[in-house]
Task: structure prediction
Amino acid sequence: MLKKDLIELCLLHLLAQGDQYGYDLLRRLHAAFPDTQESAVYALLRSLCREGCSEQYKGETSDGPARKYYRLTGHGTARYGELLKQWRALLAALSELGIQ
Result:
């Protein structure tokens, strides 16, 4: 599983917890993966929308510009399950080799 797939898994995991504001997703991912570029995360979010894994919508605002929120779709839930299965298989393979 490559880093892009791992970041995608993390994004889908966060979205599975409920609708998320784009910047909050970025902030949470950056805390776990500090070397990840902001532009790469937003590109992946756009890609997930294009693939039908997530939907984007404008949220309510108090003052300032409308925020972009993302929500998981049925297709996204299926993709999340696939990536989670791959991740668990990778962990099991590494564990068999004694890598922890």
Observations:
- The mean pLDDT is 92.
- The two ends are 16 Å apart (CA to CA).
